[in-house]
């Protein structure tokens, strides 16, 4: 009898309790948090980088006549904290701000730096600026806000977030949106090629470098051979596709941009996120491996496409070569190789995977009815889903739950079962964005349906 009672107690426990032991992925992300702590790195005699104070890095170049700020962080509070640290090094006025692209985590603190110094600093950027944000706005798309909050983990309690892979797990200030207001309006712009500028007694070069966004640029400081890479490089597998939703990110353009940075022969690299890479040997090696990794994934994806593979087949076919697989700066902390492979396929061939069965797929509810019949009724399908979870097959459990929920969206037991499956999947995923998305949707599923 005691054994029976013990068995019932174990079965009744939530899956989060049964699988209390930390997975390898969770341990990796927790170790990653050490890299993401706030720190000011002196990169060269004139360059300082503040990483970990905000999701995106904020950098300062000290010139004879003033300061140049490269990217401004996500929120004003972040920018104020960094400026306080920078002021320990120099009290010169801020002469210019350079924005590597229009993402809000790089532009949100601009007002803090604009209010410092003698007059209003010039703001340098590419044009058209903030292309990704404008793309959503022009199309009237708003769901990316919800999906972005899920990806970022902004709706999760602190105990469910470890970090964001390339950034600390910060939250927006209370009662404020993730990205506040409109991005700053650049005063000095260029579209293509290379723009040489003289500011604060410094000679800098701004180089058009499409990649994570089409408005991306990198900053080259030739005197001290420092490259500010923007988001075309950070110490993680890159976000070739963001699960919050993006238009196709041109991977070939991204590769070309990395190649240009390598040809500068930099001594040091300051990424858009994570800590700088210091020393010529290490910098060139890291950027070269990064470029080669993207090139390999792109080439293998196209190779598979030309063999007639579907996206589901490609993700099993495409992988990094062995010599790149265990490099920490290519680990999938933020982006994910599978998502990139699917994005490349869609970017070139669109939604149709080539299988004519999928030209006119059954609607989810209709397919669910037939799956229920095939399984021998809803109780049998539900039993199979529960068994899948017990067998540590969370993906199959979630897929079976989708059939149950397609028929009955308010089914509380199916919602809870799928939530447990998503939580199990999250525990095993090192990609922080996907992990946050799993956990946020699980949290949503555990709340009563609006139709109940």
Automatic annotation (TrEMBL):
<keyword id="KW-0378">Hydrolase</keyword>
<feature type="domain" description="Metallo-beta-lactamase">
    <location>
        <begin position="55"/>
        <end position="273"/>
    </location>
</feature>
<dbReference type="Pfam" id="PF00753">
    <property type="entry name" value="Lactamase_B"/>
</dbReference>
<dbReference type="InterPro" id="IPR038536">
    <property type="entry name" value="Alkyl/aryl-sulf_dimr_sf"/>
</dbReference>
<dbReference type="InterPro" id="IPR029228">
    <property type="entry name" value="Alkyl_sulf_dimr"/>
</dbReference>
<dbReference type="InterPro" id="IPR044097">
    <property type="entry name" value="Bds1/SdsA1_MBL-fold"/>
</dbReference>
<dbReference type="GO" id="GO:0018741">
    <property type="term" value="F:linear primary-alkylsulfatase activity"/>
</dbReference>
<keyword id="KW-0479">Metal-binding</keyword>
<protein>
    <submittedName>
        <fullName>Alkyl/aryl-sulfatase</fullName>
    </submittedName>
</protein>
<dbReference type="GO" id="GO:0018909">
    <property type="term" value="P:dodecyl sulfate metabolic process"/>
</dbReference>
<dbReference type="GO" id="GO:0017001">
    <property type="term" value="P:antibiotic catabolic process"/>
</dbReference>
<dbReference type="InterPro" id="IPR001018">
    <property type="entry name" value="Beta-lactamase_class-B_CS"/>
</dbReference>
<dbReference type="InterPro" id="IPR052195">
    <property type="entry name" value="Bact_Alkyl/Aryl-Sulfatase"/>
</dbReference>
<dbReference type="InterPro" id="IPR001279">
    <property type="entry name" value="Metallo-B-lactamas"/>
</dbReference>
<dbReference type="InterPro" id="IPR036866">
    <property type="entry name" value="RibonucZ/Hydroxyglut_hydro"/>
</dbReference>
<dbReference type="GO" id="GO:0008800">
    <property type="term" value="F:beta-lactamase activity"/>
</dbReference>
<dbReference type="GO" id="GO:0046983">
    <property type="term" value="F:protein dimerization activity"/>
</dbReference>
<dbReference type="GO" id="GO:0008270">
    <property type="term" value="F:zinc ion binding"/>
</dbReference>
<keyword id="KW-0862">Zinc</keyword>
<dbReference type="Pfam" id="PF14863">
    <property type="entry name" value="Alkyl_sulf_dimr"/>
</dbReference>
């Amino acid at each position: 009898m005691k054994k029976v009672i013990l068995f019932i107690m174990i079965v009744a426990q939530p899956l989060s309790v049964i699988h209390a032991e930390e997975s390898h992925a969770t341990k990796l992300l927790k170790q990653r948090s050490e890299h993401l702590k706030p720190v000011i790195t002196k990169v060269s005699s004139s360059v300082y980088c503040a990483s970990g104070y905000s999701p995106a890095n904020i950098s300062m170049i000290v010139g004879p006549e003033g300061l140049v700020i490269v990217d401004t962080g996500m929120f004003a509070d972040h920018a104020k904290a960094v400026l306080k640290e920078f002021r320990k090094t120099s009290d010169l006025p801020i002469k210019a701000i350079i924005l590597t692209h229009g993402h809000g985590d790089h532009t949100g603190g601009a007002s803090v730096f604009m209010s410092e110094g003698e007059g209003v600093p010039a703001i340098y950027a590419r044009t058209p600026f903030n292309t990704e944000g404008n793309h959503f706005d022009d199309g009237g798309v708003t769901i990316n806000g919800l999906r972005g909050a899920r990806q970022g983990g902004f709706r999760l309690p602190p105990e469910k977030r470890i970090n964001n892979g390339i950034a600390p797990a910060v939250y927006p200030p209370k009662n404020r949106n993730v990205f506040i207001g409109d991005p700053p309006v650049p005063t000095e712009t260029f579209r293509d090629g290379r723009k040489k500028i003289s500011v604060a007694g410094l000679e800098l070069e701004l180089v058009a470098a499409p990649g994570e966004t089409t408005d991306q640029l990198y900053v080259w400081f030739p005197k001290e051979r420092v490259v500010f890479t923007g988001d075309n490089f950070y110490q993680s597998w890159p976000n070739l596709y963001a699960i919050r939703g993006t238009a196709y990110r041109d991977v070939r353009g991204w590769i070309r941009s990395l190649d240009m940075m390598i040809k500068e022969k930099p001594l040091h690299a300051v990424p858009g996120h994570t800590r700088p890479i210091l020393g010529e040997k290490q910098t060139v090696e890291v950027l070269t491996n990064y470029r080669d990794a993207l090139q390999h994934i792109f080439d293998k994806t196209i190779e598979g496409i030309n063999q007639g593979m579907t996206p589901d087949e490609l993700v099993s076919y495409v992988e990094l070569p062995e010599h790149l697989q265990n490099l920490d700066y290519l680990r999938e902390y933020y982006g994910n190789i599978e998502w990139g492979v699917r994005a490349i396929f869609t970017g070139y061939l669109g939604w149709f995977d080539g299988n004519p069965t999928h030209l006119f797929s059954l609607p989810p509810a209709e397919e669910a009815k037939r799956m229920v019949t095939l399984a021998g009724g809803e109780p049998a399908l539900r039993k199979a889903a529960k068994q899948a979870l017990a067998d540590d097959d969370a993906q199959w459990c979630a897929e079976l739950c989708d059939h149950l929920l397609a028929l009955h969206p308010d089914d509380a037991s199916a919602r809870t079962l799928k939530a447990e499956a998503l939580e199990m999947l999250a525990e095993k995923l090192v990609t922080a964005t996907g992990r946050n998305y799993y956990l946020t949707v699980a949290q949503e599923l555990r709340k009563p349906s609006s139709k109940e």
